[in-house]
Amino acid sequence: MKVIELKASVSMANDVEADNIRKELKKKGTLLINLMSSPGAGKTTFLSATINALKDKYRIGVMEADIDSSVDAEKIEKLGAKSIQVHTDGMCHMDAGMTHEALRELGDDLDIIFLENVGNLICPAEYDTGASKKVMILSVPEGDDKPLKYPLMFGESDALIISKIDALPYFNFSIEKCEERVKQLNKDIAILPLSAKRGDGLEAWISWLEEAIREWKESE
Q1: How far is it, in rounded angstroms, from Cα 102 to Cα 117?
Q2: Where are the beta strands (DSSP E) in 39-167?
Q3: Which of 41, 45, 122, 165 could form a disulfide with 139 if both were Cys (CB 3.0 to 4.6 A apart)?
Q4: Mean pLDDT of the region 74-84
Q5: Is 209 left (phi over 0), alpha (psi -120 to 50) or beta?
Q6: Mean pLDDT over residues 141-154, rounded?
Q7: At residue 2, does pLDDT exceed 60?
Q8: Backbone φ, ψ for residue 158 (5° rounding)
């Protein structure tokens, strides 16, 4: 009897397409960031603050991935960034094929593109979208134990944004404990606590992002 390893086959095809996306974006000098978090962690508010800080210096595009609705894309477009809404038809993540199609619709001549992935801490970590950087957001109300429950997401990410730090007085969240748990999974991850609402810590994030843009444009 012949056995077909379908999962491995699908994963391999996705990885090949993801590598092709990176090669295409490299030629254009465009950095693609896969932004991941749970629903309600503050991705759109965080993106809005980032766009406002950088829109006069960089050409920014945003792909808003959701199962339905276009609310987030409309918010982002009003800030002056190029934005498109991507409906995933019930799927809980973006894959390379979806990303490729969305990039064609978004167009060229952009310095940085954010893929705001579907909100959950499981599926998005399992699929390579072709992004060169993976950034995840963990909000203070979610708790500092999430690295223990979703290790793959934290292990795969290049940067962790600890968002809503203005809410620290109201929740049992230890930044030190969270950092310790995350570093055990991923010693190279950048951990950046911030409040997009107040602007606390935003400068450190912008500095990390600009360095990532510079490295991407200059690397072979």
Answers
A1: 12
A2: 60-66, 82-87, 112-116, 133-139, 159-163
A3: 41
A4: 88
A5: alpha
A6: 97
A7: no
A8: -85, -30
Q: Which amino acid is at 27?
A: K
Pairing status of strand 112-116 against strand 82-87: unpaired
Q: How far apart, in Å, are the Cα atoms of 22 and each of 81, 88, 91, 128?
A: 21, 21, 23, 11
Say if residues 36 and 157 touch (Cβ distance below 8 Å). Answer: yes
pLDDT in tens, 95-122: 999 999 999 999 889 999 999 999 899 9
Chain-centroid distance, C-alpha 26: 18
Q: Are strands 190-193 and 159-163 parallel, antiparallel or unpaired?
A: parallel
What structural domains and CATH numbers belong to the chain? 12-218 (3.40.50.300)
Short-list 142, 137, 182, CA closest to 161? 137
Measure the CA dihedral 40/18/91/125, to 10°: -50
Of 178, 47, 60, 67, which is closest to residue 119 (Cα–Cα)?
67
